[in-house]
Amino acid sequence: MYDFAYKNDFLSKIPAKVSVSSLHPGVVTEDEYTAQALKEIEMAPLPRFLEETVEKDAALSGTATHLFMQFADFEYAEVFGSEAEAENLLGNGFINEAQYSRIKFYPIDRFFSSDLYAKIKSAKRVYRETPFNLRVSVGDFVGDGIPDVPQSQIPIERRAGVVAPYMNNNDDYILIQGAIDLFFEDKNGKIYVVDFKTDQVHKPDGDKILVRRHKRQLNYYCKAVSEILSKPVNGAYIYSFALGEAVPVV
């Protein structure tokens, strides 16, 4: 029997391919960010079975809202309201009855009266639900933080921001996959990325919580868009349905 510990064993935890929504820390899935949001909201303690119900309902509502934003005719929703457009989506099979019942229409209608939507509406080009594959060097990926690997388990010379030179070998890549909610080119040719979030955050610190959770995700979106369009990205926003406002990220 060999008793041997590979000194770079932590590298085996780096996957060859990841979904952008599964990255940790800083990027969380719908179920996970719902749980985190509930922990950060000051509220009276609930029995665990009720907490699980609240978390599940919030996640399902968030999923329904994202489906609406994926398929909706924005111009129709702006004029006739999100509920009328949701009825169209239901009738045409884009969403089902359960999803329709979980959509919160007032927060969506606020989006269509926002300054960000006005910019989108006046844009030269708008791209929605765009899939991407982004190659990222292992060195850059580790520099952003390794998913599910505590920093204490990574040799100090290879922790985030201090990556050993051999890890920047051009042959060492991982593939990041995902879909970008929306990006647009404005009248001046500038490019902006938009990500819709339903995290249940609140003022005054909700915007900071969103940036902390999702900045890494938005950074990858910006890199992907820059490659797709062969142009630099000028900025990125999280549109928070809970806050009713756009939060600048990068």
Helix share bin? 40-55%
| Count of β-strands | 6
Mean pLDDT: 78
Radius of gyration: 20 Å
User: For the record, what CATH class applies?
Assistant: Alpha Beta
Which descriptor suits the 3D outline? globular
> Which class best fits the helix and strand makeup?
alpha/beta
Provide the CATH topology: Lambda Exonuclease, Chain A
Low-confidence stretches: 1-8, 24-47, 146-151, 153-168
Q: Which oligomeric state applies?
A: single chain
The CA-CA distance between the termini, in Å, is 52 Å
CATH-defined architecture: Alpha-Beta Complex
Annotation field: number of helices: 9
Main beta sheet, described? 6 strands, mixed
Helix and strand run: EHHHHHHHEHEEHEE
The count of domains is 1
Strand content: 15-25%
Describe this structure in words.
The chain has 250 residues and is α/β, with parallel strands linked by helices. The protein has one domain: Lambda Exonuclease, Chain A (Alpha-Beta Complex), CATH 3.90.320.10. The chain has helices spanning 30-40, 48-71, 74-80, 82-91, 97-102, 105-111, 115-121, 138-143, 206-229, and strands at residues 17-19, 125-137, 173-185, 191-197, 235-240, 245-248. Strands 1, 2, 3, 4, 5 and 6 form a six-stranded mixed sheet that branches. Helix 3 (74-80) packs across helix 4. The longest helix has 24 residues, at 48-71. The N and C termini lie far apart (52 Å).
Please sum up the structure shown.
With 250 residues, the protein is α/β, with parallel strands linked by helices. It has helices at 30-40, 48-71, 74-80, 82-91, 97-102, 105-111, 115-121, 138-143, 206-229; strands spanning 17-19, 125-137, 173-185, 191-197, 235-240, 245-248.
